[in-house]
Amino acid sequence: MNSLFKGIADLFFPPRCLSCHELLISGESGGFCPKCLQRISFLSPPICASCGAPLSPEAGKDALCLRCAATRPPFERCRSVGRYETVLLEAIHDLKYRGVIAAGAILGNLLASCVRVSLPVEEYDRILPVPLHRKRLRERGFNQSLLLAEVLAREFSLTLDFQSLRRRVHTSPQIGLGKGERSVNVRNAFEVVRKAEIEGSRILLVDDVYTTGSTVGECARVLLEGGARSVSVATLARA
Ligand SMILES: [Zn+2]
Ligand SMILES: [Zn+2]
After folding, report:
1. Fewest C-beta in 10 Å: which of 19, 117, 220, 226?
2. In angstroms, rounded to a whole number, what is the distance separating the alpha carbons of residues 238 and 52?
3. Count of CB atoms situated within 10 Å of the CB of 44
4. Which residues lie closer than 8 Å to 51 by C-beta, 6 or more apart?
5. Cβ atoms 78, 217 nearer than 8 A
6. What are the strands, taking DSSP E only, across 102-201?
């Protein structure tokens, strides 16, 4: 935003913390007050080198979680900002279910700072949000993952691509399903519709929440099958 415009806008609508709605003191940026920021359980090493799951303190840099050691997920690696609880959970719910669109930019910036330190951004050339089915998109009016991906694309000068991957099946909500049921639920739910755009590209896939990894895993599988060179994943929260 133009800084003069932002200055004027701040006079009339002074920035408030997204979580507790306290006024932010000038200089406090990022959309959260320091107190709420502290309540976010940020994920930091040691984490699984593949899926980013938190590991026990003695785990080494290249250690894998048990699940990835048994079967590597289709994506190269996944990194997330923090645990899906308290401040992060509420903010994601504000965005998804209460339509607080402003949360998209704030959470997008939070995700960008995580990606900057945890993923080799210079190795990607295309950024894709996990698509919503058109029926869900109609209900919600926007794709929350696209709002996040927009911020990352701008921040890292990557091509934003929300057209090449399509959700062709309207799956029932994943809430309450176990890992096995979730995989069945999303199996073949996605398809690559612009193969030429995907072929040979190194993709950063963006989603809001990583639960069992079935959704991003299935997207990655379809993208690789469609000719993508690699797929990595960034999500805001991790259940
Ligand atoms: Zn706060
Ligand atoms: Zn893992």
Report:
1. 117
2. 9
3. 11
4. 65, 67, 68, 73, 77, 78, 210, 213
5. no
6. 126-129, 159-160, 165-167, 190-192
Residue 129 and residue 207 in contact, taking contact as beta carbons nearer than 8 Å? yes
pLDDT one-digit tens code per residue, 45-77:
999 999 999 999 999 989 999 999 999 999 999
Could you say which ligand is closest to the alpha carbon of residue 25? 1
**Joined tokens for residue 166:** 């399509």
**pLDDT band, residue 28 (cuts 50/70/90):** low
Question: For 89-132, how does the pLDDT look when each residue is reduced to its tens digit (9 = 90+)?
Answer: 999 999 999 999 889 999 999 999 999 999 999 999 999 999 99
Ligand 1 mean position to 39 CA, how many Å?
9
Minimum-distance ligand to the CA of 31? Answer: 1
Ligand with an atom nearest the CA of residue 91: 1
**Spatial distance between the Cα atoms of 20 and 138, rounded to a whole number of angstroms:** 30
Task: Indicate if the pLDDT at residue 87 is higher than 80.
Answer: yes
Task: Compute the distance between CA of residue 230 and CA of residue 235 in angstroms, rounded to an integer.
Answer: 17
Distance 79 CA to ligand 1 centre (A): 25
Reported as a pLDDT band with limits 50, 70 and 90, residue 197 is very high
Among positive and negative, which fits the CA dihedral 178, 179, 181, 182? positive
30 CA to centre of ligand 1 in angstroms: 11
Ligand 1 mean position, distance from CA 19 (Å): 5
Distance from the alpha carbon of residue 19 to the mean position of ligand 2, in angstroms? 30
